[in-house]
Amino acid sequence: MTRPEIQEPRPERYNPHAIEGQWQERWQQSGLYTFDPQAPGQKHYALTMFPYPSGNLHIGHWYATVAPDAHARWMRMRGYNVLFPMGFDSFGLPAENAAIKRGVNPRGWTYENIAHMRGQFGRMGSMIDWTRTFATSDPEYYRWNQWFFTQFFKRGLAYKKGGLVNWCPKDQTVLANEQVVGGACERCGTPVERRNLSQWYLRITDYADELLDFSDTDMPERVRLMQTNWIGKSVGAEVTFSTPAGPETVFTTRPDTLMGATFMVLAPEHAKVKELTTDAQREAVEAYIAAAGRKTDVERQQEGEKTGVFTGSFATHPISGDQLPIWVADYVLVTYGTGSIMAVPAHDERDFAFAKKFELPIQEVIRPEGGEALDVAGSEPYVGEGLIVNSGEFDGLPGGKESIANIVEQLEARGVARAKTTFRLRDWLVGRQRYWGTPIPIIHCEQCGPQPVPDDQLPVRLPDDVEFTPTGQSPLKLDTEWVKATCPNCSGPAERDTDTMDTFVDSSWYMYRYLSPDYGAGPYDPAQRGMMPVDLYTGGIEHAILHLLYSRFWTKVMRDMGLTDQSEPFKRVRNQGMVLAEDGEKMSKSRGNVVDPDDLVAEYGADTVRTYLMFIAPWELGGPWDPKGINGPAKWLSRIWTLYFGGQPDGPRENMTEADLRYAVHSTLKKIDSDFGRMSFNTIVAALMELTNVLVRAGRSDRYGTPAWEEALNMFTLMLAPVVPHIAEELWQGRGGAGSVHLQPWPQVDESAAVRDSVNIGVQVTGKMRGQIEIGKEASQDEALVAAQANPEIAKHLEGKDVVKVIYVPGRILNIVAK
């Protein structure tokens, strides 16, 4: 193998600013990263969650993008036909609030930001295919949001109903349950209020059971657990009690404790509270309901002293006939189960605390096997399984799952209960009372009721000249001309719906639109359905419940509509951690600790920033930013440049065999392949840095200029390409490589070279490291000791001493104890 000639002389010093811009421009002009669905190779659809166009890509955007970009490049070099697109999640409150602050329409502000951020993505050196980009605020995109909504409406999956909703008083809009965190608005942190409003919902609960099946998607266990808990499947029974207001059905997961029910509790919003409240208790009950209305569901579920009020009425136990007092308490939610519970204080912590406070009876019905009777005067209930007691015919049966089915069957035969499965998950509230979002495509007619906008009238475009300062009602209501409409059913006068959609609708199906962004006959070209599911989807763990759950729901509906063959949108999901400030705090403008990637690129170049972000910490964990840490990657790239273009490395002569060099290269390649598969990016960079040291040593040996040396540099260049694409392109071209380095096939591991017959192990003499020896992998302890004694650096520490003990760990270390 002859040594390739350097095509043009390169400067002695590495200057990223002299090469990165020109390569970015050439890649863009040549269409290097344009995806061709007809190109050879197995498809690989890699997708990173698209950003909100806030104005600037921050360091978190870089962290979320450069590692998946490296992975996509690696897959492409391995022969896959890779699609790696990017767009912008551009509807939503931040743009609207920024526009209000500036006194402008959010459209102009949004699209200026998009143009700026596209330039930033380019300076990152990413392999994004920009021919497929879009923004969710493009009418050509949100037209299909509206089309989906009308299809959902026709299928009974979209509906409007009145009820209690979460209301953010600052943003002046309703919030889905998933958008309330700790009793506050997820976006702005304002405490959330509860209001009675008529709102649009999507029936995600129709798919609750199926959403618990993760067999067709590889998600981190943490994400699966978060979604499972949010869906909250509970298997049990509904039991009916008689009350003065008629039958009242409660849901319980422990029907085996029915005989321990000593009182009933209703949610303050329960429809029967008014009828059940006696005149003597009415004032107290109404005051309590008013106080409960000022709390969020989250606050009501928090641990703390229980509150409640007696209605004055009693329920009749369906088995014993006992009269159970009916209370109202805010720890019971009207949105869970039936909004009422049978309270079993002996075996439920919340019921126990309530009973103790209000001196209500406590009846033990489950006892640990071999245990003693519950001390009702004690400080805690018994919530485990055991034997049923004090329950008549059920006495002696095992409590818990083992007997529940049998007990429910007997209760069903008596007509007082039925088996029931419930879910914590509630239907998705999708209406918003703000301007900058997709208009809901429904026309309201007094004669015909709500009617979907016909397909040929989509999109229903957002008007531009609207006063959108939040008032608590939809800003679109103020545009009376826009509101006027004709009923598509009877042709009579009608009005448009003035709410806009939750922006999570936009991101629930966007991965399909990248497949054919200009397609006009549907949300995407069905000829491209073979590109789904997304093979690797990456983004933050904060989207585990909202976005990921909604996307899974949306794909299942699309499947049932015949729009996709898949039941899951993502084959594999992985989450990155977060880059924190130097002190470990979250970065924020208010704290003044934000790291600007543009400044870093201006000082160090994109490849250095890419390297450091992959090297800083395990990608899935993240970690604090160290402003000094980036100097290491900068020096490493300079060292590589000098290795290639600076002639034979200076320094003392090294002794390295061809087998040594080939082992270092091929074993590193094998490790990098494994690490890319595990998405362990920090160890990939570490392995490349370690190989750089080996190559410098090889350059000081007789290997310099040999075929093994040339093979090593060529393979090293290819290994660098996914991580540091600019310098890798320059190294490849500088060594006479044909075409772009990013079009080259990934090197293959020579397994025979990647395995060594010998190993280097450390040698300690009486606990202190004194050197290394090279011995056979299967060398015995005696052979290792002989090799150590033959090494001059080690032997001098043994002179005049007796070896009293030898500790040998094959392949790792030899410890000689000498006196």
Automatic annotation (TrEMBL):
Biological process annotations from GO: leucyl-tRNA aminoacylation
What the entry lists under SUPFAM superfamilies is as follows: Anticodon-binding domain of a subclass of class I aminoacyl-tRNA synthetases, Nucleotidylyl transferase, ValRS/IleRS/LeuRS editing domain
* Gene3D superfamilies linked: 3.10.20.590, HUPs, Isoleucyl-tRNA Synthetase, Domain 1, Valyl/Leucyl/Isoleucyl-tRNA synthetase, editing domain
Q: What is its main location?
A: cytoplasm
Binding positions for ATP? 589
Could you confirm whether the keyword Ligase appears in this record?
yes
Name all Methionyl/Valyl/Leucyl/Isoleucyl-tRNA synthetase anticodon-binding domain ranges.
664-780
Pfam families, alphabetized: Anticodon_1, tRNA-synt_1, tRNA-synt_1_2
One of the entry's Gene Ontology molecular-function terms is: ATP binding
Residue window of motif 'KMSKS' region: 586-590
Q: Where is this motif: 'HIGH' region?
A: 51-61
Q: What is this protein called?
A: Leucine--tRNA ligase
Tell me the organism's taxonomic lineage: Bacteria, Thermotogati, Deinococcota, Deinococci, Deinococcales
The coding gene here is leuS
